[in-house]
Design goal:
This protein is α+β, with helices and mostly antiparallel strands. The protein is built from ten helices and six strands.
C-alpha cells in the first residue's frame, strides 16, 4: 500500500505542475533543456530498460519495485524536490520552467505506460489527466511500452551528476551536524563552502549554481581547505572538506533564499534580484 501511495503521490505532483503545459507549443527540445532535466531523462532510460527486461522475464515484482524506487529515490527525494524552486519562482513562460515541465511530462508519460500492465486503473487515470496532444491515444492500454531513446542517453552527463549527487550526500551530513549545533535551522539558512579533491574541483566550480539548487541551500562556494574552519571531512571522498555557516544577507520573501541583494531595490525591498527579474 505504501508503494502504491508513493507512485500515486509522485504522479499527482507532476500532474499538478503541468496544469498550464501545452504539449505542442511548450515542449522544450532536448538540447535546450536544463542539465538536471537531461540527467533525469537519462535516468529514465535506465529505468525503461530495466523494467522492460523484467517484463520480458515475467518478473512483475521487479518491474514494480524498480518504478517504486525511481519514484521514491530519484524523483520525490531528489529531482522533484530540487525542481520546486524553479517551478514556483521562475516566470510561467520561462525556458527554465518549460524545460522542467517538458522533462516531467516525458517521465510521467513513460512511467504511466510502464505501470499500465500492473496498476491498470491507476495508469488509466493518470493517462487521462495528462495534457492532451494531437494523436494521443484515448487509453493508455492502446499504447505500447516506451523504448529506450538513445537521444536521451548521455554517459558523461550521468557520471558528472553521479559525482555531484554523491557530494550532496556528504554535504547533507555536514548540514545535519551544523543543525545539531544550532548553526542553522532550515537548509536555506546555510552557506556551504566546499573544498573538493582536485578531480572534482572543475566539475563543482562549473556547476556551482546547479550545486546550490541540488543542495537546496542559499549559497555555495568552492573554497580552499585552509579557509574552512572546523570543516566536516568526508569519509567517502578523499580530500573533500565541507564547511557550513549562516548564509549572508537577508531572506527573500518570495523564494526564501538568503541574498545580499535583498533590499537593494527600493520599490521591492524584501525580494532578491533573481526574483525581481521574474517579477518584471
Amino acid at each position: 500500500m505504501e508503494a502504491y501511495r508513493r507512485v500515486r503521490n509522485t504522479s499527482r505532483f507532476i500532474l499538478g505542475n503541468l496544469y498550464d503545459f501545452d504539449y505542442a507549443s511548450h515542449m522544450t527540445p532536448y538540447g535546450d533543456m536544463e542539465e538536471m532535466d537531461r540527467w533525469a531523462l537519462h535516468r529514465l532510460q535506465e529505468i525503461i530498460r530495466r523494467v522492460r527486461e523484467a517484463y520480458d522475464q515475467y518478473q512483475f515484482h521487479v518491474a514494480f519495485y524498480t518504478l517504486y524506487n525511481f519514484c521514491t529515490v530519484d524523483l520525490s527525494a531528489l529531482y522533484l524536490d530540487v525542481l520546486k524552486d524553479r517551478l514556483y519562482t521562475s516566470k510561467s513562460q520561462s525556458k527554465q520552467r518549460r524545460s522542467a515541465q517538458s522533462a516531467m511530462y516525458i517521465i510521467l508519460d513513460a512511467m504511466t505506460r510502464l505501470l499500465a500492465p500492473i496498476l491498470t486503473f491507476t495508469a488509466e487515470e493518470i493517462w487521462l489527466s495528462l495534457p492532451s496532444y494531437e494523436g494521443k491515444e484515448v487509453s493508455v492500454h492502446l499504447t505500447q511500452l516506451p523504448s529506450v531513446n538513445p537521444e536521451f542517453m548521455n554517459a558523461d552527463l550521468a557520471e558528472r551528476w553521479k559525482n555531484m549527487i554523491a557530494v550532496k550526500g556528504e554535504v547533507t551530513k555536514a548540514i545535519e551536524i551544523a543543525r545539531q549545533k544550532k548553526v542553522i535551522g532550515h537548509n536555506l539558512d546555510a552557506r556551504v563552502d566546499i573544498a573538493p579533491p582536485e578531480k572534482l574541483k572543475d566539475i563543482l566550480d562549473a556547476h556551482r549554481e546547479d550545486m546550490r539548487a541540488l543542495l537546496i541551500v542559499s549559497q555555495v562556494n568552492i573554497a580552499d581547505k585552509e579557509n574552512i574552519k572546523d570543516g566536516y571531512v568526508s569519509g567517502e571522498f578523499e580530500g573533500l572538506t565541507i564547511g557550513v555557516a549562516r548564509a549572508l544577507g537577508k531572506k527573500c520573501d518570495r523564494c526564501w533564499i538568503y541574498s545580499e541583494s535583498v533590499g537593494a531595490n527600493t520599490d521591492h525591498p524584501t525580494v532578491c534580484t533573481r526574483c525581481l527579474v521574474n517579477l518584471e
